[in-house]
Write the structure tokens for this entry.
Amino acid sequence: MSVLASTRRRLRELRPSTVLATLALLSVSAVVLLPIAIIVFTAFKPAGEVNAFPPSLMPDTWTLDNLQEVTSELPFLRLIGNSFLFAGGVTVFALVFDSLAAYALARIDFAGRKVLLIAIIATLMIPFQATLIPLYQLVADLGWVNTYTGLIAPRAADAFGIFFLRQFFLALPRDIDAAARMDGAGEFRVFRSIVLPNAMPALLTLGLFTFVNNWNDLLWPLVFTTDAEMGTITSGLTLLTGPSGIVPHGVMMAGSLVAIVPLVVAFLFVQRRFIENIATTGIK
Amino acid sequence: MSADHPPVRRYRPPAPLGGRRRATGSPTGRGVKAFLFLAPALIILGLFVVWPMISALRLSFTDASGFGREEWVGLENYVTVFTDPDILSAVTNTALYTLLFTPTAVIAALGLALLLNSPHMPFRSFFRTALFVPFVVSFAVAAFAWSYLIDPQVGLLNYWLRGAGIQMGNVLEDPGLAMPAVALVAVWKLFGFYFVIFLAGLQDIPSSLYEAARIDGAGPWSRLRHVTLPLLSNTMAFVLVFATIAALQAFDQIYVMTGGGPYGHTQTVVMEIYESGFKKLDIGFASALSYVLLVATLILSLVQFVFFGRKEKDMA
């Protein structure tokens, strides 16, 4: 009864403009999700259907052939493992180093703080490609080509993360650490047991961000790894195509599906908080 | 160290709310502590960002190829950057890509954020999630999916549009359509990020301002023009700068979808850097081109910040 009444009230509140906007949003979302749908459905289509005319979205019969073939074309598990090690390693190191630096910039009052902050933000404007060649040479000189250290180390801290966390740390109330300080806690204790636990939303957001960006990065793993076994899933998949595209679409979509599933699942788990966190934390 | 600074603390008046934190310890002590916190990040940034920057500058004046000794060639590489017809064409292509990508992505993101900022919108959280999903998909995967969708023979989108009377033909082989296609893939992949940032910016606008505007008789259009957009100018500057940087650095989906073709019509500056540096091993030239791109990026970012970032101050 009351549910019915409230539904009726809500329907009455729906103005024509809201209905129009909802329809517009539904069609935009459909277009936006179409490539995701085509990946998912094509991955399970038999070869005959993938190249059939007229094309269709859904498979008539479902098959695992494409997934099996992509694992035979590439050292697939190895590449997925590399992606986890690369993106995960970068995320762990970057969160630790960025939060340490951000803490000093936000909450320790030292000479030269402003200048340092500006210098760090300035590195944000450097296009990665501008440093790519000397960076490669440096890593080669260190003997790190085709190693996980070489893949991860250059990304183990980044200006965006430092800036992002600094903004969040600045917004934390200043008094929360006073009690701990009065008990004689040092700067590191305050950082670890007061500031960090209160910054979980920001760390989660930045962590997902860093993980996604590195998992998806093409250029760095592409130029850095000369050994196909050391590539990531993102760079490995491009080996299948080349501009001419020799590999069947079904197999490509199966590979793409495997590459995006970990990210989409991770995102859907934290999505509500993720989007809200961006709203409440520093970027803007 | 601490002997130089007797542990006598000067009196500081209590900080106003939200003001500076009480300083603890001597200035030197704080400096040392701050340095310890900063050291790991500064070492990483110094070694892997700043040092390569300096190296690139040096290499850009040489004929470095990765083998043997490099010779100093003065400004030769820079002269080539500004005179080579291939580079001129790559610069034109990058400018075209930026003009196609940046306004489209920013306007789409802003429009959708304005729609979804209203608390009365049904399925709000579904739409927000759906619009952000492409951002977690890599450019490479986005490129595969879109290439298949617009395939001239078996592409589903191509087939549907043909049904609606729109003939696209072989988009990625068409000199006029290849660039809009790769730019649209970037719009698809990135607009969700700008959308979320706009949402965040919109939430910061106090609702009292809208009420005041309504009392003054301002309609929706006038509220948008005189309240929302001026107060959003800082967010706008942030989004424009990031979108422009993303456009100037276009690479991934182009590498996968067209490889710079057809006939160099999607060859961008970063594609040139990649090819000259890693395929032709002309490292000196690639470094010079990188520096020109860097300076162009800096100038464009500054112009945008100055132009779009100031209005909010005028309002306040």
User: Anything to note?
Assistant: Chain A touches chain B through 102 residues (CB under 8 Å).
